[in-house]
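pasting for ref
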Amino acid sequence: MTTSIPAGSSKLHYRVIDCKGQRCRKTSWVTSVTFNRRIQKEFSWSQRVSKFLQIQRCSFLHSPTNKNGRSIRTVTSSYSRDCSTKYFDFVVIGSGVAGLRYALEVAKHGSVAVITKAESHESNTNYAQGGVSAVLCPSDSVESHMQDTIVAGAHLCDEETVRVVCTEGPDRIRELIAMGASFDHGEDGNLHLAREGGHSHHRIVHAADMTGKEIERALLEAVLKDCNIFVFEHHFALDLLTSQDGSDTVCLGVDTLNTETLKVIRFISKVTLLASGGAGHIYPTTTNPPVATGDGMAMAHRAEAVISNMEFVQFHPTALADEGLPVKPTKTRENAFLITEAVRGDGGVLYNLAMERFMPTYDERAELAPRDVVARGIDDQLKKRNEKYVLLDISHKPREKILSHFPNIAAECLQYGLDITRQPIPVVPAAHYMCGGVRAGLEGETNVRGLYVAGEVACTGLHGANRLASNSLLEALVFARRAVQPSIDHMKSSSLFSASNQWARPFAPMSLGNNITDKVVEVTREVRKQLQSIMWKHVGIVRSTMRLKTAERKIGELEAEWEEYLFKEGWEPTMVGLEACEMRNLFCCAKLVVSSALARHESRGLHYTIDFPHLEESMGLPTIIFPCSPVKSTWSSRQLHKQPMY
């Protein structure tokens, strides 16, 4: 179901839409709501939504090492009652900036497990090039940063959330510096502040064009020194463990698959933070690393968490177009190589293949327009001219400046015969960032008790319909910190849940034999490509109602065929494998995007549809997705431990 709730209203008006995006007949006004949980007298947009939805439910086995070969702390027997079940005060799912920053704070109050799908450094944070936006210049102001954020977000942002993030951001940057993160400084000794699209001031703190990698390095070093934090690499989160407490859904931990041993490890915790990143791999070309398959969003949806604004998928305008390189890469990339927004912020100009500058015809801000505008401009050029990429030229700038500001980009391009100090860079849009996600209040809380969210997996109301450049790392830092105190309070009032066998335990499909499991993996990889193709063709930068409905039908058919194949081969509902479980999460997220897009009958920010090409002031509402009834739902929509046994 999809529900829209207006900001700033004492009444909560909700428009109920079924899972196919069709409006139901009943529309109601709710004028008084009573909550059992502690709440503030005044709610922000995000808090009102979160609290309201509580009453609107549908009924080591060895020591891992990091990339440098250093041993990462594993759980001792004092934290483990048996080898397959671990007990912690806090569980953090994800090892990007949000998860690590949160872990470092809550570790002062209890034991922390950081669960990460691959190596601990492999996260969207590590691939973030541009930087972190923050008001650190005397000529800049919080009000200016807020205004830029709200304009870029097409006025769908929650103003209170925007103010909190823009106000607290500078302190979060100073904390990183105190922890050892090294950012670029100018000749005057002050932080060098860059400017990117949509920003009215220079306010981007950066470490050349590898800012995310530097932040990740500093945080990981601090985590490795903390004796209360235990990192579990190659542990793929499968499903949240939930229970009902009256009308409340309570999160009590998570099941994971150790992808090296194929053992299911259960983590029982008092508090869970979901910081698992985005879902870029629902599309064929994305700047996201391979781990970004929407696992957190899908798990949260299955656990009856509220999802919001999934129609707003940000396509970065400038990913490296391998087809335009002098020397073609010998193998297909798992993720597109990002050409940071800062290249345009530093004076980079976009041309079509006829060397005609085109962005001024789309927006007076030209290359410095927000990402949704630039991506649509490039998309329009490619379709009109039947070309496969455009050119981004920074070669008119001094060679030394280019190499000092963009060493990573220069080195990558030079591998393929392209000197960016002399030649333009071939670029094309690629899926980059999910502005929607698990609905969060101002302290990272969700409608599921004990479950907090931060980073790209969360929808806090900051980004609205389009994320302003370099606001993502900022949001992750601010909300990771804001979630700390309520998490500690919840931890202190909770006791560890000991009956871990309450839930059926998933298991790897060993009994099927290698031939069948190999075939399942092969078929699943092909299905994944088909889903990505459907999403790019029908749910891309420019949409239409017909395309969206076609996508909805094709995705439903593809998922049904895939599930039928699995179960015919002997797969059971509680069986788990990396490829199959990623696939169910991709299906889940793709359906959430399509359902949300069908529900928005206007063009706003990243959601542009030719059937409703204009922004409608009356539709400036978030899109809210309630969890659906598990009855007759697909495998991707049900928690593993709630599966009926065949």
